[in-house]
User: Fold these one by one.
Assistant:
Number 1:
Amino acid sequence: MTIRISIDCMGGDHGPAVTVAAAVSFVKRTEDVQMILVGQENIIRSELKKLKFDHHSRFPFISIVHASEVVTMEDPLEVALRRKKDSSMRVAINQIKDEQADVCVSAGNTGALMAISRYVLKTLPNVDRPAICSILPNQKNKPTYMLDLGANVDCEPRHLQQFAIMAAALFSAVEGTAMPTVGLLNVGEEDIKGNDVVKKTAQLLRDEHAKGVINFYGNVEGNDIFAGTTDIVVCDGFVGNVTLKAAEGLGRFVKTVLNAEFKRNFITMLGALIARSALKAVGSRLNPSNYNGGSLLGLRGLVIKSHGGADAYSFEWAIQRAYDAAKNGVLEHIASAMNELVAQPVSESVAGAIDVSSETPLGETGTS
Amino acid sequence: MTIRISIDCMGGDHGPAVTVAAAVSFVKRTEDVQMILVGQENIIRSELKKLKFDHHSRFPFISIVHASEVVTMEDPLEVALRRKKDSSMRVAINQIKDEQADVCVSAGNTGALMAISRYVLKTLPNVDRPAICSILPNQKNKPTYMLDLGANVDCEPRHLQQFAIMAAALFSAVEGTAMPTVGLLNVGEEDIKGNDVVKKTAQLLRDEHAKGVINFYGNVEGNDIFAGTTDIVVCDGFVGNVTLKAAEGLGRFVKTVLNAEFKRNFITMLGALIARSALKAVGSRLNPSNYNGGSLLGLRGLVIKSHGGADAYSFEWAIQRAYDAAKNGVLEHIASAMNELVAQPVSESVAGAIDVSSETPLGETGTS
């Protein structure tokens, strides 16, 4: 099965210089892929020429779709959505709607990408709001899937509940784990900890656990993200965004300090030189580039968001993420998980504000 | 001026073995300090003996106040607050109320420490809720003061406004910067970003800035914490707690990976050995122990919270923090800053979100 990936070539801080190079590199090393490069045709063609790809044996696996406009990082949502109807971002997403592509990758403006994706593709049945799910490395040398990372700054319990179910479907499709563990990000492990939204969400997730829909671990704390306590960490987009960016900031800080100290004098430089394989391994294990590519979950189509500042190496990881998602039928998994949520209608107790009382099958978890 | 510090010797994961050792070490190296060790007298005495401090020339600068009970990490708030009236934590805080101590340090249960401090000391005029403010290292090699770190999981704009003013007073008192910059933690820099609470808070802080009360920088993002973009970062206790713990978790993760890679083979071990001064410098610059000691702000007395798992080195940093706070008249600075807030009533434009009713008794806003 050939995976067709549409690339918003004009998005991101570096545009085609990065996106086209990454697409070419990916298509060279991947058999069953067809790339649709969307953007200003002459620029894309000249990038391909620069890369000497126009005579490559894999060249036929790339096609170009022209789009005359570009959504910039500064464009307000209305402009991106209503005025720039021929933007590379919009046209790339249209490829999915028109069934020309299985998945789309963009490094453009997150807000615009979410808004256009939502407008063009619509949300899946039973999804109130799409969310952005990214992968972080953890101490167990496994991935931690975390969402939402910024699409929803205010969440109600049922949104977080939906995020949990979608992320579980994503994780099991991509990682092959039948029932991945789900943790709810909180300020403590105990049930009494946290604000109102989190406490109510925990109750909803306990209900889903009881029904066998998800494998709810319970509350997790900030340190559990990198400890790998659970496969999935659910939080609202405000907390998720701040935490992710704080982690990136701390990572940069550590790197700066390490570099500065190793360059302090001849001896330390020598040590670093001798130990360079170790330092390289550390760098590669913690390199955020290897975790580039957030999935927009809850849409009727697969869209992957790359970091805006991604280089070609990093953007290629986002393409890999897109390829894996399409290959593993992530969309179908999520749609079916959300359908089951419909089939098992939200009990009265859960609908409003939770009052897990008598009729909930798993009454006893409701207490504590 | 001698600073009198009361120490809750029984608090924390390690109790007197850590707290007494840290107090002794501190008193040995600090001239103008008087330590009040609070806890089970026989245990404290035996620790002092173990440390061979009972014949030391600085021994007279330590006194012991017996307390028969201990607040455990598992104690519910009611137990800590209502039942254990002779706990080392309570008695240590009482020392401030009774004007026997200028500042108190405890590594005990955060919730209990906040509740007891609030009950015994009361909040300062015009403070609705106390907050916990900690120091983090940043890339500029300066401290970032961040609050709230867990005392208030739900905040209204006026609470965050108060946190900002208190932190600015703390920062200028301890660091000697007249008008430290204040950043509001958000998911983006633009004014339109964020949830309702953050947007309303930004307006309040802009008003305070216009009045010359604080130096409001604007919104900051997660990465700005470690970049050192502003001196102070304000957020609610949920976001602050999660972010801080995530940073700790990432720090541990990086350390584990570094250690593992350097120990991988003889060559890398040799490199690490040669570069050990660099690694040590990195470790010391990023060592969370050096940043131990969160200030409980907004009380009519100075209370410093140490990490529960602190070792003696780390606990001594919390004592240092306490000493510095008292020495620099932090309490007076904060009280006077909050008094000015009364003197300059909140403008109509923001009154909706606000209602800083001066008559609100400092009672019922539970932190849970």
Number 2:
Amino acid sequence: MPANSAPDAPQASTFADGLESPWGMEFMPDGSLLVTERRGRLRMISADGRDISSIQGIPRVDHRDHGGLLDVTIDPAFASNRLVYLSYTKAGRGLHIDRNSLTVARARLSDDGSRIDEFKVLFRQTPGAVNGQNLGGRLAVSADGYLFITIGDRHAPQDRMRAQALAYYQGKTVRIRTDGTVPDDNPFAARHGARPEIWSLGHRNPQGAFVHPRTGQLWIAEHGPQGGDEINVVRKGLNHGWPMVTFGCEYDTCAKIGEGTSRRGMEAPLAFWKTPKIAPSNLILYTGDQFPAWKGNVFVGTLAGKAVWRFELAGEDNAPRVVRREALFAELGERIRDLRQGPDGSLYLLTDGAKARIVRVARADSML
Amino acid sequence: MPANSAPDAPQASTFADGLESPWGMEFMPDGSLLVTERRGRLRMISADGRDISSIQGIPRVDHRDHGGLLDVTIDPAFASNRLVYLSYTKAGRGLHIDRNSLTVARARLSDDGSRIDEFKVLFRQTPGAVNGQNLGGRLAVSADGYLFITIGDRHAPQDRMRAQALAYYQGKTVRIRTDGTVPDDNPFAARHGARPEIWSLGHRNPQGAFVHPRTGQLWIAEHGPQGGDEINVVRKGLNHGWPMVTFGCEYDTCAKIGEGTSRRGMEAPLAFWKTPKIAPSNLILYTGDQFPAWKGNVFVGTLAGKAVWRFELAGEDNAPRVVRREALFAELGERIRDLRQGPDGSLYLLTDGAKARIVRVARADSML
């Protein structure tokens, strides 16, 4: 412990390392961690961080560009049913071999944690795209059994308007049940020509998501273009604006995109970074007791920003406003690919890259 | 009369000439004709075709590319209220000078026909576009006072997906009242973020339109890209497919556009021309008595095709099917810019170009 730290000051230490290009992680009820690696491995890390193993039964993934095995999350009733959800990019077949689709599957983790079985694809983004960029890919399951999936616009500038088109999955959040069926009360379930799974539209590349425990609302973080990263409280059936309104601009030239930064009928973000580009990976709501001052704060991991942003909110949970924001843990100098609250209320930060680790942030007097 | 013609054979003759790049025409109850010229003149031609005059009071139009003063139509109660409707492209102001918007206005034609007054803009396509292509621009008024406007996708390949986006007017038909207000029963009138005037989506460049007198449905003709011209019976609130499904392909390369020629949730056209490109201008339902064999047929004027296509239909008016089609009047060798049924049941064909004319098609025994 550094000499200048109080006992309740947050301290960062390496919890586990040896991870290769990880993307998502999730705690299991026993405190052990599931971690995805983009090239197609699902790892399990013991609750003390000392043992790491690979889970068998993962499908082949298409890991070109930013794709591959992406997120992992668990069922609300995981303790009894052992169900996990995985997102990944899957190459097409035959003539469609150059395309890939964001795909979401459910599987059952064996009791000994060595493999997954009963693999079932729940969702596939069709048609696929010819790159592996702006994939979205984050999963969030609500306590009442809805699975939200974030989907990016797949980057191609000439196709970005698909984020506004209800006939495409690009640039959307979607909501299905954990068995893959589509809820009748989805906003476009009955609209001829619309994808019934769509929950909201007008997103660029949302790669962070959680379901708020009190409101059931989906909160997301999304990558803007050059500048214009956003946090959004997603509204059922509504239009969050990309690419019509954004606080960002085109790469390199910073040419204007769309029509401005706001417009009637387009939902404004809860928060945004005009510049610089911080590249948010995931976000969480902190509900732990270890850091009472952080309770109810939202933490956003950032890649380019190499920090974790902390947001203090005020107002009702379904109509929040930001009253304070600060960048934390910049001294780590790490791109943060995912973050979670551990069972003990510590923060766990998953770093990015070919040689990645998990950093545990805990009170100085509570280190493992 | 050619010696080889029967008395009831259709014969073409010049009704009027001296028109400069005309676009639309409409008969008034007294048999005289209103004709637009793209550079901004509204002409009136007497019922016998002999006198032609210019109507004063037309706004300045932006006639770059295919734009300018486009269509003209009259109110169902024109005989008593003298109201006319005009569509045209209008340049933006200030910073938006390089853009133009399809605009629709209403005005009152003076009793002597010399000028229009009480000019009122009813609709403006905002934001504008930086070209004057794929404008749409056809007007059709229903007997019960709804004004339909066809709007093209504005051509830019990177923007064509706007035809699928409810937040844009591009690639839509819209429906307003003849006073410019938006009917509450428009399909997206209550949808946050959608343009409330939208009646249907997924059109490329619809430049032909009529309201069917029995069903009240909007029938349109639209230009495809290279190939893929279509006739559509428009369904309220539904998706007619462009650019996701089309029978056409990209110019020059004939590269594939979208996903194919049909898809669940996308309305199929009533008829299409895969190749060659005929470029439909306008279409009408023939209801006259002069050619009994044509009654209930749909006639489509074509530009590139230099002919008028006649379609025989069967089935209910709201679920028709094509049973026969033929190209007529190809011997004229004229690009047909508009066509109308005259008060006497003759067909009037408006030709295209800087030196254009109106051709009257009538029974050989009924020539003026």
Number 3:
Amino acid sequence: MWAALAAVGRDPDTGGYRRGGWTPTEREATHWFLDQCATRNLTVESDGIGNLVAWWGPSDAAGVVTGSHLDSVIDGGAFDGPLGVVSALAAVDLLRAEGFEPSVPIGVGAFVEEEGSRFGMPCLGSRVAAGVLPASRALALKDRSGVSLAAALETAGTDPAGVGPSPLLERMGTFVELHVEQGRGLTAPVGVASSIWPHGRYRFTFGGEANHAGTTLMEDRHDPMLTYAMTALAANKQARLAGARATFGRLSVEPNGTNAVPSQVTAWLDARAADDATLESLLAAITKQATERAERDGTTLEVVPESVSPVVDFPAGLRDRLVDVLDGAPVLPTGAGHDAGVFSAAGIPTAMLFVRNPTGISHSPAEYAEMDDCLAGVDALAAVLKDLAK
Amino acid sequence: MWAALAAVGRDPDTGGYRRGGWTPTEREATHWFLDQCATRNLTVESDGIGNLVAWWGPSDAAGVVTGSHLDSVIDGGAFDGPLGVVSALAAVDLLRAEGFEPSVPIGVGAFVEEEGSRFGMPCLGSRVAAGVLPASRALALKDRSGVSLAAALETAGTDPAGVGPSPLLERMGTFVELHVEQGRGLTAPVGVASSIWPHGRYRFTFGGEANHAGTTLMEDRHDPMLTYAMTALAANKQARLAGARATFGRLSVEPNGTNAVPSQVTAWLDARAADDATLESLLAAITKQATERAERDGTTLEVVPESVSPVVDFPAGLRDRLVDVLDGAPVLPTGAGHDAGVFSAAGIPTAMLFVRNPTGISHSPAEYAEMDDCLAGVDALAAVLKDLAK
């Protein structure tokens, strides 16, 4: 399964994956998933936005859902998402080979646009499914080419009118997501999640005055690039001071000409911290430094939160049950957002398993996990499913 | 003429012009020019890359060429380029109305891709015409979509095989370019150029390591955005210290995703100074600070000069002759590059006239000149042409 899926959407130049939601490569990965489900005689259910759950066991009852996502960040790694989907299918195979018969259904899920790499909204599929993102707002989201989600769905043959809170969640008694760890926090092959850090995406729009790069005195300029540059350095410094994370990884410059002082720089801040208060004070500190510099540069600044997810503390009872099943596996928080966080916040008992990441590198073609650790992840997931569906 | 040309290639949202070389809007402006020449019974000659000179007066002799360019920077103003072309045609009309008969031919020129906004090479047409940019290198230049100049020429119906040093220059006995001033250095309606500052475009490639924006410790990152940000601030500071200009107006970020530490930031530095030595020491100072920061960030830096034009001192004799004709018009240098600089460096006696810019704003939709000053520019150009072609 790993070898077959590894080829889908891989950029031959960078080795990274480009599987934005509803793009041909992501659709190819989805068709691969449907083929795998068909081979296993799993009953696939879909919701309006295209989230999928493939069921094994008693029908029409609530059960244990596992799985993850098949989309990727731009130039992402092979493991983030697909490891959870492939491990879920492999765990079903293991349990069947053992002759296990679940007393409640086990579902293998694939949730759409978890990374938000195309429409800018992380966990798009799970947020819509859980009803925390209204359909009208979701359908109006646009990608970088100006294509709306509604138009993308129509192109994919999906009626946008069906988008909304998902009936799939009615059968999601418990959700367990297996995922590659994305830092260097896990030294054992497999661990259990305690919490997801709060996470915000904020759009910083720096406005200035376009001008000639050769003739305009430095003193006469209102250059938003300078305000942005100082803000990027301030974000780094403030995140270090707070033991948090702050990243400017995406930029758009107007007019983006070599010999023109820019009229506008738009920059997206990704900020995360261990708790909500720290995240708020981090954003406030960055915004304060940016505003002060804007006054000095004669530029303008607008900060718009595009998405802010509060801290998710996974329920302690379920977490401890997983730790017991896994003979005392280590417990750790994560700075990465996941559909599991959305489902947990929506009141579904949710847990996560992490597979060790030896380098801590993720959202990069260099993302990696040892095959032995991945197989230990499959074993752990099978043991957890067996316990929850016994 | 001004009203007709003002509508061509104007973005209705920004009010700025988008007339990159060989784009439909730039072609439309060129066809407008050809129509104007036909109306006046001027004899148009073209060279291999598409530079045009429309002749009035005795044929087959060397004469006085004036004119400018019709292309624009991205979101540029109405005056930069077109003012020189329109004023040249208007000056011919004035001289004819007076009954003036030139003893040597007067040519009205329109030179292609002066701004370099499409293929990244300023003064592309004049550099190829003067033989300072080899045809092979010019034809291999690519625009941001990866289209080569050779391909763009073929699309425009021009055979790339004809690109090379231009026979038009054999008849260019003198060249006089009228241009809107681009700083605030001119307080009279019309002035005469002393020199063009040396000007370099340098590509700074900052390399780092893509990673997850949420899970990667700040201390573990190799984030090229930070190295770039510090370099942009350093460039501003060093330019102020040197009384020079340094601008980072164009950026490209990979993968440019909100939740990924970038793997690479490419940034273009536009740097200019009053003399070659100051420009060199400015670049050295910026590169030194960037290199030191790269060491600290664990990132890499490569600096590639894309084009460097040395200082142009226009010949004093011709300059003084213009000042005399214009009753002691002020003399001033410019930080902006021009085809006049290329022709002067190629040994053609060259001069420039500037029309006052009340705000100093250029390369911007807000670029502006008073109509009275523009008309004074036409009168001045007519007087100069009359003197040089008498």
